[in-house]
Design a protein that fits this description.
- With about 800 residues, the chain is mainly alpha-helical.
- The chain has 37 helices and 6 strands.
- Strands 1, 2, 3, 4, 5 and 6 form a 6-stranded mixed beta sheet that branches.
- The radius of gyration is 41 Å and the shape is elongated.
- The protein starts with a helix and ends with a helix.
């Protein structure tokens, strides 16, 4: 028989196929268990390959053991061959053992066989030539007990290596020790991410890698990634362009300037058709490398996986456990599997950072066209539209799509998307609060969650102290943003802490000197103190600094009109608002057009007492901006209903209310939307003379909204009409004394109205002293009134003098 055939025969004879099958099956189970533990328990990446190497080493040992333990052919090793069988397969009863000699007698098998076998003298020795009873060396070593014990010891050794690695990583000992444990970094250390150097032929690949890397790093609870907006402010203080590419050298200069200890710099290069990614954690002060990592992607499709791996290794070295890191989904699942969509998203993010929202929206639209489940892009669209304060219909659709695809977001982004959806779309404030709190549970310093949660408490819940506490944490935390400063001023303002608000504004302007938003806050504070000349100068500065920024230009025109009203220059105010309306028509902006119309309506109603002219202004708006041409969610239904009702056309207001409820049925309305229906019905009821109904509706709204001064200016005249003079006085005085940031422009129009009405109410009550006080305050409010107002001023002064005389008598 040939050697090959003999080998095959032996393999079959010794059942090695069965042993091999069992071993492979057990090995597969072991690998599955190890891989599961690697993901769930956070074992190092080298554990599965290490387990595979041990199994590969064990395979020949197990096969050799099986081979030896089944015995060697011909009985030469002392083990008898298989019994001879006949044609039927049964063991023959007369089987014999053949020994040397011409005629051996049958020998019985069994333990006593050696006693009956004739001695066979070995030539030249005089000893018996019998098979040895001592096992061979291979047979002694290759036993199943040894094989199993060796496997257990091998995997025990692997366990010791894992435990040693964990100990060294956790304690900061040796080259694998994490940087927080070593004291190199503090927990939640601030880190700047520099733009990845792009050494490829793809112009935007560096931005793509940087943005994707940022998505991963921002999830880390161990390091705090400095917001790009804040880095821009550091660059401004350095006299550098905040929109310039953040090279590693520039990032290091910014970090040193602001006392930030470390930065991450990286590079993406193209080598032989593959992409090589490197990332280095650098100490800012010395430029020393704290840790460096490298990954390779063979194709563009593998790029996100390589970025994931790179950020995982960096986060682990910084001090985050692999278990925490791997709890998140891979980048291609939480962003997009389309590299082209990710490119567009990265470009759009850069435009958003520069305030070029319209251009950014165009790119984001292209991104979601490539990947309709790209949740981060949908959320960016919704947030951008909200910041621009345009197209609520489109904004709600984008936020809804982000919510529907929330499983395609990182844990942090998912909670932020859920919170934004419930805040803007469903108005479920409780669910929005819970989502933001989930973010803060993992990262107590998260700037977005702190800021947005504070907005809910500040604007919607009117819990100013809670809002102030959250915002104070945000502006003093490791991820300071201009938004937190923005809202801290608002919170302090709404609490009447005007001096503290000025201090917060000054700090904000120092930290973010070129942010256009602080102009509006300065105007609000100046208007609150009736410092009209200074406010006008600030408004002019805002337009000069941002002449192409529609938000600044339109809001400044509206504010300047209000400031002219504060002086009593109604002609100037009217001219400004009409110019603003013209600009809104040219830009196709009904939202701003209606804001200017509301100013004109207030002027005609409250100052000139000409409701017919106020009604004409509303009808002009409807002619220039037909509601049918405006998406339903963008139509100013509530404002139109209020102005039409107050101007004497409640029938048209009721028709719009009916249209609103058809266009936006109850099951599609948010809680806030349904609550605002109460004020719409109240305005119609008041105009129709149903004052009891109007008062009840307004009181119900105020109980639900918990807003301090909201709609007191509407409730007070209703109460006065019902003869509830004390309640009307309390409402007017509360409206005057409780600041509301969002209404500072309207206050310039309505403050003199409230002063004059309070004077009349106290006069009717017979409280001459208080009536005189309010008449005098009314008369002195307008510093430079137009001739058409001077008659009312003189009448108030005269009545105040008469009342003073009566009190002194």
């Amino acid at each position: 028989m040939s050697p090959i055939k003999n080998l095959i025969h032996e393999v079959h004879r010794r059942s090695l196929w069965q042993v091999l099958g069992i071993y492979l099956a057990v090995s597969w189970v072991v690998i599955q268990v190890v891989e599961t533990l690697t993901e769930s328990a956070g074992l190092p990446d080298w554990v599965p390959p290490g387990a595979l190497v041990l199994l590969l080493i064990g395979l020949p040992i197990v096969m050799a053991t099986a081979f030896v333990q089944e015995g060697m052919g011909g009985g030469t090793n002392g083990a008898p061959d298989a019994q001879d069988t006949g044609a039927t397969g049964a063991v023959r009863a007369d089987s014999r053992i053949t020994v040397d000699g011409p005629a051996a007698e049958p020998v019985a098998r069994g333990p006593a066989a050696s006693d009956t076998a004739p001695a066979n003298l070995a030539p030249g020795t005089g000893s018996l030539d019998r098979p040895s009873t001592r096992p061979s060396t291979f047979r002694r070593l290759l036993t199943w007990r040894n094989a199993i014990a060796g496997g257990v010891l091998a995997f025990a050794g692997l366990g010791v290596l894992i435990a040693s690695y964990w100990f060294m990583w956790a304690t900061g000992f040796g080259p694998v020790g994490n940087l927080v444990a070593q004291g190199v970094l503090e927990d939640r250390e601030q880190v700047i991410l520099a733009d990845f150097v792009n050494s490829t032929s793809d112009d935007v690949l560096g931005s793509v890698v940087t943005d994707a890397f940022r998505v991963d790093l921002v999830e880390s609870p161990v390091i705090t990634l400095v917001d790009r907006d804040y880095v821009g402010q550091i660059l401004r203080r350095m006299g550098r362009d905040p929109d310039v590419a953040l090279t590693p050298q520039l990032a290091r200069e910014a970090a040193v300037r602001d006392g930030i200890k470390a930065l991450v710099e990286g590079e993406v290069a193209e080598v032989a058709g593959s992409f090589v990614l490197t990332a280095t954690l650098v100490e800012a002060e010395t430029g020393a490398d704290l840790a460096a990592f490298r990954e390779t992607a063979k194709t563009g499709d593998e790029l996100l996986g390589a970025i994931d791996k790179l950020s995982e290794r960096l986060r682990e070295r910084a001090g985050e456990s692999l278990r925490e890191i791997r709890a998140g989904a891979p980048l291609e699942q939480v962003t997009t599997s389309s590299l082209d969509a990710l490119r567009l998203y990265a470009e759009a993010r850069g435009l958003q950072d520069r305030g070029e929202y319209e251009e950014a929206l165009d790119l984001l639209d292209q991104a979601v066209a490539l990947d309709s489940a790209f949740a981060m892009a949908w959320r960016a669209i919704g947030v951008s539209l909200g910041n621009m304060n345009v197209d609520r219909d489109r904004q709600f659709d984008a936020l809804t799509r982000a919510y529907e695809n929330r499983d395609r977001l990182t844990e942090r982004e998912r909670n932020l998307a859920v919170a934004q959806f419930h805040y803007d779309v469903t108005d479920d404030l409780d669910e929005s609060i819970r989502a933001y709190e989930r973010v803060l549970d993992k990262n107590p310093d998260d700037p977005t969650a702190l800021n947005n949660l504070a907005i809910i408490y500040n604007v919607d819940r009117w819990e100013m102290e809670r809002a102030e506490a959250l915002l104070t944490r945000a502006v003093n935390g490791p991820a300071e943003t201009y938004s937190a400063h923005f809202n801290l001023v608002v919170s302090l303002f709404n609490q009447g802490k005007i001096e503290e608000a000025w201090s917060a504004l000054e700090r904000w302007m120092d930290r973010f000197p070129s942010s256009p938003a602080h102009f509006g806050h300065e105007l609000a504070l100046l208007a609150h103190e009736f410092r009209w000349d200074e406010a006008e100068a600030v408004a002019d500065s805002a337009v000069a600094a941002y002449p192409a920024f529609d938000q600044v230009v339109f809001s400044t025109i509206a504010d300047r009109g209000a400031f002219e009203m504060g002086r009593g220059r109604v002609g100037q105010a009217e001219a400004l608002w009409r110019d603003g309306f013209r600009r809104a028509m040219e830009k196709g902006r009904p939202d701003w057009g209606f804001r200017f119309v509301r100013g004109l309506v207030g002027l005609e109603l409250w100052i000139r007492s000409r409701p017919d002219r106020a009604l004409a202004e509303v009808r002009r708006f409807e002619e220039e901006f037909p509601l049918a041409d405006i998406p339903p969610l963008n139509r100013p239904y509530f404002g139109l209903i209020a102005t039409l009702s107050r101007a004497g056309d409640p029938a048209r207001g009721r028709a719009l209310l009916d249209e609103l409820e058809i266009e936006l049925p109850a099951d599609a309305q948010s809680v806030g939307h349904r609550n605002r229906l109460l004020t719409a019905r109240a305005n119609i009821a008041a105009a129709e003379g149903s004052l009891d109904e109007a008062a009840a509706l307004l009181e119900e709204y105020r109980r639900i909204e918990t807003c301090g001064p909201c709609f007191l200016d509407v409730l007070a005249p209703v109460q006065a009409g019902l003869g509830q003079m004390d309640r009307a006085i309390a409402s007017y005085e509360a409206w005057l004394t409780q600041p509301e940031f969002s209404g500072y422009g309207w206050r310039a129009v309505f403050v003199p109205v409230a002063l004059e009405r309070l004077a009349r109410l106290y006069d009717e009550k017979g409280d001459a002293a208080r009536a005189a006080d309010y008449y005098e305050r009314f008369a002195s409010f307008w510093s430079d009134p137009d001739p058409e107002l001077q008659g009312a001023v003189r009448a108030a002064e005269s009545r105040a003098a008469t009342l003073r005389d009566s009190v002194s008598d």
